[in-house]
Specification:
The complex is a heterodimer of chains A (397) and B (246). Chain A is α+β, with helices and mostly antiparallel strands and 397 residues long. Chain A is built from twelve helices and 17 strands. Chain A folds into two domains: 25-143 and 372-381, Uridine Diphospho-n-acetylenolpyruvylglucosamine Reductase, domain 3; 147-199 and 206-369, Vanillyl-alcohol Oxidase, Chain A, domain 3, CATH 3.40.462. Chain A has helices spanning 43-50, 68-73, 81-84, 117-123, 158-168, 227-240, 249-253, 283-297, 337-351, 365-371, 375-379, 389-395; strands spanning 25-29, 34-38, 55-56, 91-97, 103-106, 132-139, 141-142, 147-156, 174-180, 188-196, 211-212, 245-248, 259-260, 271-279, 305-309, 324-332, 354-355. In chain A, strands 12-8-10-9-15-16-14-17 form an eight-stranded antiparallel beta sheet, sandwiched between helices. Chain A has a five-stranded antiparallel beta sheet with strand order 1-2-6-4-5. Chain A has a two-stranded antiparallel sheet with strand order 3-7. In chain A, strand 1 (25-29) and strand 2 form a beta hairpin. Chain B has ten helices and seven strands. In chain B, strands 3-2-1-4-5-6-7 form a seven-stranded parallel beta sheet, with helices on both faces. In chain B, helix 6 (149-168) links the parallel strand 5 and strand 6. In chain B, helix 1 (11-23) crosses helix 8, helix 3 runs parallel beside helix 5 (100-128) and helix 5 packs parallel to helix 6. The termini of chain B are far apart. The chains are: A alpha+beta (397), B alpha/beta (246).
Chain lengths: 397, 246
């Protein structure tokens, strides 16, 4: 789709392969919920097919407008990480085509002859560098419909956030927080949680309403003048719908899909996203330091998201999630931003965390090498015929 | 609803098929050259719509007798509601000028072959007195220009042919539909995309095609703005047109 936040989808000096035409479904067994498809199929299209038949993808990232291959290669997660883990945990098989012509079928664990678990672990989260993912087989989950029972709770301060998160893990499948990114002391936010709704009476009829950002403004619409009022407005508008309500999963799980090409809001210079995870032990301290660093820099972030990750074994060698808390921040691409990133990098590194490759276009190689311990193991599985701007930047080729 | 799709693996046709199976159970016959590709497509449609029936047929797209026999054999399976004829290639103009055999091949694939299919199915639809035949033309068929007049002429032939057929079936319930897409983001136009041209999405063109067939509209430009653009291009006086680098 070419919608990556980072530079994994670029390849300066090389060729780019698009898998968007590998968009055919292969087989669907609606007794057990197994779907086989080519790698360019969009998650949205799987959902539209599966939900009326009583099945759903177990893990959806913040947008459905991504391909199956991209979801595997970035081992994406959703708001239900503590319950369902990452996308890769629900892939039962994948087919890799290497540039030397070899085809490798891989699956997790000991699934059978000819299926290679080591290649599976390298490819899930392997940002496309082990070869081209051509096909995959996914295990869907049972659902009674597209509806969620959702609740929004306003909170102040990090301690309240962690109390809400920890207290919601057991009974609420989905949880995420939007935060008004001021200093940690003055932090406020909206904690949003949801779980599948069996009951759909009272649900308003829902129609996918998609708008498109029609043009790129000459300067970022997200800037020092607009940010505070925007955040305050969002806080009050969204906070008003506080009580429990029945919502369609699309606006709850994938809010950005209602404004296609929203990235244009940031003007021609675009924006950076900075998504980190820090482990459980450091979660309060490191998050506080990062929020303070952002506040001190004067660079605000409109899309600031805080979410806890569950404690689950990673699906891939290079998977991002780890037990702890993840903070995602968007910054318009401005002159002061690199210096802020260096300060944030230092906090993440000190805390024993890491940055998310799916969102990254700038992390220094030293940080990458220090925070992805399976890198040497992963390198054995690289397809020497493939590269990306990201691999050139972080792995030297 | 029984629909025959000729050149079914073309991107526009494939997306039309996806729209049809999404609307409800349909009976599709896909006429393809590449049977392996056709089978992948058929499997996809069956997953999308288990209640639909998807059959594959292959034929030499240049052989009149084979095409007539295929049309007759499909017709013998029951009344046909609609036929979509969608195959085509977009050549590099210069290559057509340099290589006459290639030029001839382009003319055959884009113009002669669709005409043979249309005529073969017109015979059966004419007998039934009802049904729709749609052909994918192109905005390039509206006026010849140096950048692609071999392609343009082949599509222009199809347009004139559809016009005549529409006349032939006037007063009956047989509808002839000519779709004129602007440059569309399909594998056929990958070269244009690489040049950075703005292309219509294949989903949009497929939707317009399916809608036009349902309504039996004789000529449809898609995206719709091409109707105005081509109106202007067609009416530019020679002394201006011939100086344009288009």
């Amino acid at each position: 789709m070419g919608r990556s936040y980072g530079d994994a989808c670029l390849n300066p000096g090389g060729t780019l392969w698009s898998t968007s035409r590998l968009d055919r479904l292969i087989a669907f067994d609606d007794q057990v919920g197994r779907l086989a498809c080519e790698s360019g199929v969009l998650l949205r299209d799987i959902q539209r097919l599966a939900i009326p038949r009583g099945w759903s993808l177990p893990v959806l990232p913040g947008t459905q407008m991504v391909t199956v291959g991209g979801a595997i290669a970035n081992d994406v997660h959703g708001k239900n990480h503590h319950a369902f883990g990452t996308f890769g945990e629900h892939v039962t098989k994948l087919r890799l085509v290497r540039t030397d012509g070899e085809t490798i079928d891989a699956s997790p664990g000991d699934a059978g002859p000819g299926l290679r678990p080591d290649w599976f672990a390298a490819t899930v989260g392997g940002v496309g560098l082990t070869g081209v993912i051509a096909q995959a087989e996914l295990q869907l989950r049972r659902v009674s419909g597209p509806w969620l029972e959702a609740e929004t709770i306003a909170f102040e301060g990090l301690d309240e956030f962690f109390a809400l998160s920890d207290g919601s893990e057991r009974d609420w499948e989905h949880a995420v927080s939007w935060i008004d990114c001021r200093s940690a002391g003055a932090l406020r936010g909206l904690f949003m949680r949801a779980r599948p709704a069996g009951e759909t009476e009272g649900a308003a009829p829902w129609r996918a309403r998609t708008r498109r950002m029609p043009l790129t403004p000459p300067v970022s619409l997200v800037n020092g003048l607009t940010l505070r009022p925007l955040n305050a407005l969002y806080f009050h508008l969204a906070g008003r719908r506080a009580g429990p309500r029945i919502v369609h999963y699309e606006p709850f799980l994938c809010p950005l899909d209602s404004l296609l090409e929203w990235n244009r809001l940031y003007g021609p210079r675009g924006f950076f996203q900075y998504q980190s995870v820090v482990p459980q032990a450091a979660r309060v301290e490191a998050t506080r330091e990062m929020l303070d660093a952002v506040a001190r820099s004067g660079e605000g972030s409109f899309l600031a998201v805080l979410k806890t990750f569950g404690d689950r074994p990673p699906a891939g060698l290079m998977s991002f999630p780890a037990a702890g808390v993840t903070l995602a921040l968007d910054f318009p691409n401005r002159r002061a931003v690199p210096a802020l990133f260096e300060r944030l990098d230092a906090i993440v590194r000190e805390a024993g965390g890491r940055l998310y490759l799916a969102k990254d276009a700038r992390m220094p190689r030293s940080l990458f090498e220090a925070t992805y311990p399976n890198l040497a193991e992963f390198a054995r599985f690289r397809d020497p015929g493939t590269s990306s701007a990201m691999s050139q930047r972080l792995m030297g080729s | 609803m029984r629909i025959v799709v000729v050149g079914a693996t073309s991107a526009i046709a494939e997306h039309c098929c996806r729209l049809w199976v999404q609307q409800g159970a349909v009976d599709l016959t896909l006429v393809v050259r590449d049977i392996a590709k056709g089978e992948r497509m058929a499997a996809d449609l069956r997953v999308r719509s288990p209640q639909s029936s998807v059959a594959l047929a292959t034929v030499d797209f240049m052989a009149p007798a084979e095409i007539a026999a295929l049309a007759a054999s499909i017709a013998s399976g029951g009344p046909i509601n609609a036929v979509l004829i969608a195959h085509g290639v977009l050549p590099v103009q210069q290559q057509c000028q340099d290589d006459l055999a290639f030029c001839r091949e382009i003319m055959e694939v884009n113009a002669l072959s669709p005409v043979l299919f249309a005529e073969a199915f017109a015979a059966t639809l004419g007998r039934a007195g009802r049904g729709t035949i749609a052909i994918i033309g192109s905005v390039a068929g509206d006026r010849g220009r140096k950048a692609n007049y071999v392609y343009g002429a082949s599509k222009g032939l199809v347009a004139r042919y559809a016009e005549g057929m529409e006349h032939r079936f006037a007063g009956t319930d047989v509808r002839i539909v000519l779709i004129k897409p602007g440059p569309t983001d399909t594998p056929m136009a990958a070269r244009l995309k690489a040049q950075g041209r703005r292309l219509a999405t294949v989903e949009e063109v497929a939707q317009a095609t399916v809608d036009a067939m349902a309504k039996g509209r004789p000529v449809v430009y898609t995206p719709a703005r091409w109707r105005l653009i081509m109106l202007i291009v067609q009416h530019l006086p020679r002394f201006i047109f011939n100086r344009l680098q288009i």
